[in-house]
Amino acid sequence: FVGNNKIVLEIGSGPGSITRLLREHGNCQVSAIERDPAAIEKVTPFCKHVYQCDLNDPAWPLVTSSEGLFQVVVAADVLEHLYDPLATLRAMKGILAEDGYVVVSLPHVGHNAIVACLVDEDFDYQDYGLLDKTHIRFFGIKNIQRLFDDAGFKLVEAEFVVKSPEQTEFASRWRAASKDLKESLKCNPYGLVYQVVVKASPDSAGRGGLALYGL
Q: Could you read off the pLDDT of 125-180 as tens digits, one per residue?
């Protein structure tokens, strides 16, 4: 979705697992925003610039002002960690070049493994995954669509990362679920969607784009 030879800003880059691929395989020029000092140290070798910044600060777009505009802004599993993901997504429009776009991934809380935990009245936060203990916001398919619509973006492309419940961090919980519950959840059309990845551009004409619900 990012493409090759792009000028990229990666927000919430972490230690640089995506950053390195963008640079080494996509030949992209990448700058990054990250809060954690340890992650900054690891991502720096792959970046033109790295800015230490908390994305919950509404002024975060100002830290890159000396660089001008970006062709692509990447936010991979970032928005769910923020107090106001809508405001953050809206702010990305202000740092995009003409014909620029964002590439965003979000975990899908409507996965059947999570539904099974809710039916059992027992869900535990984890160190990673769908119920990462640092998640503040949670998104279903319709919530993701509304987030981009409300932020003034149109979805250009989208892909679902699919995992069966047995492939998730809740495999043991799923195995303990009743046969009837598992059977009934087969009717959930998005029950195997673990993550949603989208490419979106500003919708200045208000024409709308791809609809996630129905894919």
A: 989 999 999 999 999 999 999 999 999 999 999 999 999 999 999 999 999 999 99
Contact 39, 17 (CB under 8 A): no
**CA dist 69 → 74, 92, 213 (Å):** 13, 10, 32
Pick from 105, 113, 77: nearest CA to 188: 113
Residue 72 per-residue DSSP state = E
Render 188-207 in DSSP notation, one character per residue: -TTTTEEEEEEEEEE-TT--
pLDDT at 112 exceeding the cut of 90: yes
The residues with which 74 forms a beta bridge, in sequence order, are 10, 103
* pLDDT value for 208: 78
The amino acid sitting at 26 is G
Q: Which residue stretches of 2-74 are H helix?
A: 17-24, 37-43
Handedness of CA 112, 114, 116, 118 (dihedral sign): negative
